[in-house]
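Posting this for the archive.
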Amino acid sequence: MSADPIDGQVLLLTAAKASVSPSRLPELVDDAQALLSQRLAHYRHEFERIHTDEFTEAFLVEWGHWEDLGAELGMSEREIAAVRRAHEEQVLRAGRRTDREDEFETAFEIREAVCIGVESECESDPA
């Protein structure tokens, strides 16, 4: 199981701005994460990784990427927009912490963000 790529505060902020129910957004993000985590190696190979920490890797992808992913997941246009915004807000939050927010905002003019939760290598399996 991978880590959650989107912080709870980011979900709350996004839900306040989105046209989807605040109770629905975490479910949508989880559905996207299930698909994205299966494709992590592909993202590492094909796209620019712009941020990484112990729980998340963030990538810049071509514009329209979320439209394709959302369609694959059966999401409505509003749901796709909400999940896209959640991923962008998560990257911007990381950008504020690393003094790269302006750089990320500029990148979002031509590309989209994808955050994929990853297991911390420090975590141990209790088995």
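Confidence is low (pLDDT under 50) at residues 122-127. The longest strand covers residues 56-62.
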